[in-house]
Amino acid sequence: MKTYQYPSRDQWSEIVARPRLDLAKLNQTVASVLHDVRQRGDEAVRHYEQQFDHVLLDSLRVSDQEIDAAEQQVSDDLRDAIILAHHNIKVFHVSQRFVGQKIKTQEGVTCWQKSVAIERVGLYIPGGTAPLFSTVLMLATPARIAGCREIVLSTPPDRQGKVNPAILVAARIAGVHKIYKIGGVQAIGAMAYGTQTVPKVYKIFGPGNQYVMAAKQHVSLDDVAIDMPAGPSEVCVLADHTARADFVAADLLSQAEHGTDSQVLLITTSETLLHQVASELQRQLDLLPRKQIAAQALDNSRAVLVRTTDEMTDLANAYAPEHLVIQTRDYEQLADRVVNAGSVFLGPYACESAGDYASGTNHTLPTHGYATAYNGVNLDSYCRKITFQHLTAEGIRHIGRAVELMADAEQLAAHRNAMTVRIKAVGDGQ
After folding, report:
1. Which end of the chain is more exposed for a tag (fewer CB within 10 A), N or C?
2. Which residue of the set 323, 352, 363, 368 is catalytic?
3. Are 146 and 379 in contact (CB under 8 A)?
4. pLDDT in tens, 56-110
5. Pairing mode, if any, of strands 150-155 and 120-124?
6. Annotated catalytic, 241?
């Protein structure tokens, strides 16, 4: 990790910068695959599954028999852990249900909102070096609570054409309706455009590599909504002299192991802790099976020594991290100052992995600084708000003249007339 000691605010833009990738060639590949999937449907999907996932598939859809078999392959302990996590995620997201109110803005003018579920949603679940069955719970559970009529899941198969059994078990527990053995760009295209086998969805959710992220942004331009723009995973840890170096190092490495393009940031007011964490990082890194991946991610990462907690929180807000861990004596006070973050973990025991799996909050979060404008997935992500208004004759008398004047000022005569005929009707007693 590159270390900064008492940097000036002029250096902050360098500190909060994410790794840059040359996406020109990548975007060409993505556009080509998406176009082919749109044109040839299942035939193109099978072609790219053979090319990229190295498997020739007879059927794209996972059968009930395959899910039954997966149930036998997952240990009772892991199944119980998945059920516990699902329960907590469900409890937290049920609490987010929208309760609309009818509001009288003027006498005779009543307005309200109704929350309506998106009818068909697509979930993308990575299944490569880290099959993220936890993400199935994070995406499917709120979709079911919202009332989505059809929940479609795509995930890459292995070279034998099998889907990771824990993904299938989590999908059944969370209530997914249809599961497809499709990965990468072709999965995003299949859900965005629809094929002979895969239904077209209205919104796509889920993480993925840079190709998947580029594909999601591409299809969002004119075909389907997506949950949010996103990039590689990241964490920012705020720590003072009271923090435990082994806890801090563990939290940094828990994100660094996601991928070589991940990034972690440590901001501390303690020089002693800074050195202790550096030693702990090396010790814990040597024990990780994904050591090479995490080590490369640390090359993209930074440790920053600052003088005050004000600087600490200001720099964290400038970074706008996906995950923000606050391990300081006054973490409750610092939490009040957070304005840009995807999800915040408070105190020494709230490790980021608790939120990744089982605390109940959602782990599908904005990255790459998008937390300045986006929130993570929640129940509202699966809903639309439809507004209603009802006017009586009294309402026309209260707002009719204002509508006419405003329509005149915008030179929209038909808009004015739609109100004028009603004003006349009310005046006539009709």
Report:
1. C
2. 323
3. yes
4. 999 999 999 999 999 999 999 999 999 999 999 999 999 999 999 999 999 999 9
5. parallel
6. no
Listed in sequence order, the residues at least 6 apart from 424 whose beta carbon sits closer than 8 Å to its beta carbon are: none
Token pair for residue 14?
């360098």
d(CA 121, CA 202): 6
Confidence of residue 22 (pLDDT cuts 50, 70, 90): confident
Q: 375 or 430, which is more confident?
A: 375
- For residue 371, what is the DSSP state? G
Q: Where are the alpha helices (DSSP H) in 8-164?
A: 12-15, 24-40, 42-52, 64-73, 76-94, 133-146
Q: Is 323 an active-site residue?
A: yes
Q: How many whole angstroms from its chain centre is CA 37? A: 25
Are the C-beta atoms of 153 and 120 separated by less than 8 Å?
Answer: no
Question: How confident is the model at residue 330, as a pLDDT?
Answer: 96
Q: How do beta strands 234-239 and 178-181 pair?
A: unpaired
> Which residues have a Cβ under 8 Å from the Cβ of 80 and sit 6 or more positions away?
none
Neighbouring residues of 147: CB distance < 8 A, sequence distance ≥ 6 = 117
pLDDT digits (tens, 9 = 90+) for 341-364: 999 999 999 999 999 999 999 999
User: Rounded distance, CA 209 to CA 293, Å?
Assistant: 14
Task: Indicate the angle between helix axes 393-409 and 413-427, nearest 10 degrees.
Answer: 150
Q: Which of 49, 280, 322, 352 is catalytic?
A: 322
